[in-house]
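Possible race condition, two jobs.
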Amino acid sequence: MRVPLTWLKDYVDIDDLDLEALAKVMTMVGLEVEEIRMVGLPMPSGEKHEFKYTGFSWPEDKFVVAQVDEVMPHPNADRLVLCRLNDGNEEIIVLTGAPNLYEYKGKGALEKPLKVAYAREGSTLYDGHQPGRKLTTLKRMKIRGVESFSMICSEKELGISDAHEGVIILDEDAPTGMPLVDYMGDAVFDVDTLPNMVRDASVLGMAREIAAATGKELKHPNAAFEMTGPSIKGKAAIEINDLELNPRFVLGLIGGIQIQPSPYWVRRRLNLAGMRPINCIVDATNYVMLELGEPLHAFDYDILLERAADETPTIITRTAKDGEKLTTLDGVEHALDREMELVTDTSGPLSLAGVMGGEESEVNSNTKSVLLEGASWNFINIRKTVSKLKINSEAAYRFSRGVHPALAELGVRLCLKRMHEWGGGQVAKGLIDNYPAPPEDPVVELSTEWVNNSLGTDISAQEIADILIALEFECEVEGDIITAKTPPHRLDIHTGIIGRADLLEEISRIYGFDKIPSQRLNQPLPPQQVDPSLGMEENLKDLLVNLGLQELIAYRMTSPEREARRFPPDFEVPDQQYIEIQNPITVERRVMRRSILSSMLEILEYNSSLGQRLALFEIGPVFHPVEGQQLPEEKMMLSIGLTGLREKPSWQGSEPENMDFYDLKGVVEGMMQGLHIADVGYQASEYPSFHPGKTAKILIGDLEIGVMGEVHPLVKANYEMEEPPVYAAEIELKPLLEAGSILFDVEAVPTYPPVLEDLAVVVNENVTAAEVEAVMRKGGGDYLAKVQLFDIYRGKQLGEGKKSLAFSLTYIAPDHTLTDKEVSKLRNKIIHLLDQELDAKLRS
């Protein structure tokens, strides 16, 4: 929220605080100041500041309040005028093309001079004709034969808003010759309001926090005024269908108004706060919303009478009917459902409750009477409506976080007063207030002992009470017990132990987090208990990073349609149940994922055009519904994805090749070795997402824990990926980590030399290298230290259906040097077992 400094000063005296000190106070109580925009006030001195500053200053000798006494035609241009202007020192002819001065052209001396913001020669200000905000300096020049060296300013040129279609016409009481910075210089605080502090999404709310933190008096707006019109009784009625959705509804009536611009000081404040001024009636509702934090809505009362056929209009709050439609103030027609709360009359919908008004009953230039609404709404219902309709407004921002019903009456009274002051008319006596069940404001009891033990402070009971009283709690102190009643503008204070925690936060904020002393714990920390599964998971992540992969964290939310892309188009996708999200941020993220492979393919799709090599992994849960249980089974999974070049291009070496299946297998094998899992196997398999013949299941012993392979070309076509093939693996995490070990047996480095030899055998095509290796290890026993495949050969001389596998064998004994006889005996045993078990023949 953007808050002008001058508006804050209406409610709390902060003249003794400079901008840095004030911003620090606000930030320390939870109102984080992200930026301070200077609108005329001098920039703070020095080069280093704690906060970001933007904008520019209006030097007193360059920018002043001036008055235009006459608007004359330009001799050479119809769209330019010459203004006879008095800046307090001298009379000057100023050239301008502002359209809002055309109506005064050629009328001679004005009966009431126009008060304007005037920039003298040499002033630096924003260029009103350039996009964005670019500074320029006024220089003497001739335009269409008339010398120009100064300027009557628009709001854009002064940094107030982006409006530059006309010059600023100040209020009549602006003193001619006064430095502009003294008249309306300001600074705007851009404050990040926390979701649980929506009570401070108002000028009064922020002033309350500042007053409490600085010990100053909070000044409340005065809503008292005389209602001179006839009674509102019989002019309108209220009917609430569901008190849970609409606890309170207040109506006020004003007639005989004149739709006109608000006073300039009002329009300037609204612009600085980020709201566009419209007219005195709409501006009054927006002004009071920013002032108090209570959103209001104005209906054209005559339109309501017309819809009611000149009967008493009845305002009804109810949920929408399925298919019912409403066109809101932004001109958008919305299709509604039965969970959305509406404000209606007997003819149909008038507005989307707590979100935005309807177009048909809005205030317009012909409006003479206004029925003013102030209400309270269920914040969860408002949040759901906003999410479904993708519609945002200042009102919805506040109501979706919770606005206390007590603010409705004050907001209506204060707004009626503003409407009367700015638009004239008569305010009907009394209000119509439907408030059958006011909530009971929580009462919380806490002790100084508990507060001081929790914070490590030494605060007395009276100090605690004073802090809460400054925040407008009603407090009673008996000994060291403080009883605090929550003020009727807050919904964030609970009862019991949660209420005590709420008050503890309030006390620590206002007392000052920086004043809470740092203390050592009374007792040493207990010894850390290692979580083996977490340790193994972190070890696995380190292993995969060391193998050249990058960790990612993907969305857990998806949609069934997105997950179905991991199957070929002709594959019949199984009918699977998903865990549905009640309030999804988008229809694309409405269920919890069942497949981690799908998430990996989406990430590869998104990043495939951003780099020549992608090597990624994710560890995360998938969510499978369990019949009869509310919570799903959250199975932890590991996914690996590879695509692109094996190595990044370099100025030296040959052209790099794309990764293939064996790069993926190498990563999996490296992972298994790093986890010290010995009994690992790979078997050819089929899986719908992977390429037939290029897919393998991963085994630990006889347990299948995952699958890996090249992504099926038809599946790859479902994603917008680059040309290189994509390789992926999907592995269950639990059995993988259970089989691994952080601690493992080690052997001494051999002191005796190894014996190296190569052995090539001819086997049937369906025999795998892993099977041959297993038989070799069986025959070689403990002396066979290493077996490594280094060549595969197929040729006519081997015969059809045959292949040659060449292995490098390493023999070693821990206690002596192996003799030729011992090695020969081992070799013969290996050859015999190969022949016997695999029908493998030694290749000559």
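Job #2 (started ~2 s after job #1):
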Amino acid sequence: MLTVKEIRIEHQMNCITDEKNPRISYVLESDQTDVYIREAKIKVGSWETRTDRQIGICYEGEPLQPFTTYTVEVEVHTQDGDQAYAKNTFRTGKMGTEWNAEWISDEAYAFENGTSPVPFVFRKTFACKKQIKRAFVIATAWGIYELAVDGKKAGEEYFAPGFTSYAHHLQYSLYEIKDLKQEMHEITAVVGGGWAAGRSTYIYDTNKSFSKISAELPAFLMELHLEYADGSEEIIGTDESWQVTQESAYRFGDFYDGEIYDASINASDIPWHPVTLFKSKEHPKLTARYGDPVTAHEVLKPVEWHRDTEGRLIYNFGQNLAGVVRMTINGKRGQIIRIRHGEVLENGALYTESLRSAKQLVQYTCAEGRQTYSPRLTYMGFQYIEVSGIEEADIEKIEAVAVYSDMGEIGQFVCSDEDINRLQSNVVWSGKSNFVDIPTDCPQRDERQGWTGDIALFASTACFNFDMNRFLEKWLLDLKDEQTKTGSVPYVVPKRGNKTPIMTTSCWGDSCIMVPWALYLSRGDKELLRRQYPGMQRYMHSVRRWVFVSNMFKKSRLTWSKPFQFGDWCAPYGSLPDWFAKGPWVGTAYFAHISEIMSKVSGILGETEEQKKYEKQYRDVCREYEHVYMDGKGKLLQEFQTGYVLPLYFGVGNQENRKSMADHLWKLIMENDMHLNTGFPSTPYILFALSDNGRQEEAYRLLKQDTAPSWVYNIRKGGTTFWEQWDTIQPDGSLKSASMNHYAYGAVGDFFYRRICGLEAVEGGYKRFSVKPLIGGGLTWAECSHVCPYGTIRVRWEIGHTAEGEKDFEITVDVPVNTACELTLPDGEKFEFGSGKHTYRCRLVQTETGCDKK
């Protein structure tokens, strides 16, 4: 039986959008095998289209009206005559219409640069004059806000309206308000500085963090829509009739320094005064939320507690994360509780040196009796907390609440090796911790910025584990807005006042090509590539200009070193000058890589001439790398591991030379006591460079190395997320002042999914995919699943033994409707099949070549 499992509009089941041409996608399920779509009919109102596609079908009907509910109908027919029907609805927002409200703030308030403002609280009383049919609010802010009606919070999100390129876009959210009666009500909004008006931009000095604000003051904008039962409507907007105070229970709120909350304050004692109207220096487009909201997720209880030498309570939650504490306590009015957050202990006490200037402090002043509190205007990166000002007996419950963007978790991986399973857990938690509205480098210190190089390397791994559609599309819109006219991309996005010069540089700047490509392979939406393509083209023009400059007065023509390269960034050897010196090798290799991606993207978009141009450019740069940096036989003139890893992974060289390159790479690894010696730009690819070039078992040996620098060393030292540096906890137990929650080295996860399980997209969205497991490392089984846009793919393989004592390999693959799988067994035999569950076997011996399908 065929069913339409779900219909998504703009990647959401419950969509509110301002898109003029929203994209429609749907998922099918069937109990039959080899099911393909013959035709699907998509209908919205009077508009109808017929297609065999399932992803990113753009609505092209009459202009959508604001605040209107539309029904999407999907009717599908398969090649065998089976059919299914389903429908879903979506709602529009303001659709660009004028706001019936004004920005409000308090211009009498001032705060110093380098600090965050005291949170503003705005309020308004209103009357529901008649029986209410529906009530909803749309709201946004300069800063971050918490909205409540009659004391009840609206929505579940943290940090609305999110972090965007404020000069260009500002999101607003829509909240349904229930149970309004025909009486007086009060609406309040707490607005903290957040990203827009608070201290949250790291610049230059690693011990200081300066405010580079987008708004001079916190400000609020809102419309309350009242639809009455008699058909009439009323809009109550922010205006000069509202009141404001800075003397509420929220005494302070800041992403780096934390939150101060005074529950002892009596609401009736708070002084209020009239608001002032506010005009911002920025004039962004106000748009219904298009990114995933930040929400609460896992709740962790302490796994251990003790007292440090000063008598302070130390709680260990067993997992490094981004989030907040939630506590239920018995307190006395005026009692002050202080909670500090950190990632690790030193001699049993909380270690905070790695936070630099960030305080990560919560201070709570109690009311009388039993009470529950959790911060709303901040988040922390932590595994441990230090609590003072309260006895353990008075703490009824204390928990850590993980807070991150509400991406669906769509990937799973597990195998017979528990070390690798723990690494997979670290991959996932490092991603969650650094996906708090934007892709950050770390969640704890005075930084938390959207570094482009980190997400360029981690995007593929992230897209396997999470539904990154809305999260990355939001960030890519910021990148597109902040790209310069000449094509350069900032090192951090959103830039938000960061004064670091914008220069075209490999890997970091390449994010404008690598991230859309990773997202396309995962989710299959051509419209995304179409939107990003002009910026990708502009960036390539900038690269070519700097390649020309790099080779002035040289015999080479296609090497890339100028204007700046991070080179072998954060490699275990040397320091900054040593890493930067490797820039020409890294830059040239990445030039080849992005040229190949641009060739593929151009072909997908039907840009045939551009496809040919980039394909030739890719081949030419590959040859140049060999000609300039190698001896013609696969050996680098100046040997270092990254110099081999990147060309091997990016396809440089013929088969014979590639074998030589892999041999030389392994020789360098062995000379380094069987350890990697690679930086950020190449570490994600070192296992591929070995395994794809005849060194499969060596790749497993390197993966399972457990002394520093290595992935497994991290878990040997108790790491539950990946670190910024391989030896943040050193062999003797001493600590380096570095982040313990950086996802870049977690890109090793890609090897788990694409090689150990062998699952790889051949076409965007896994419309066609390959499965080619890499057997080795002593693994006896592995399995993964991935919810692609067509349904759930599952791969499980297992090695058993026959009665004769020979090894027997068995693999089962679940293929979604309307997709196809290309399977390669370990003995080299190949199969192709469509949807359904398929199981194959073969013998893992040289003399056996046949395979049986069960």
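The first helix runs from residue 194 to 197.
Logs attached separately.
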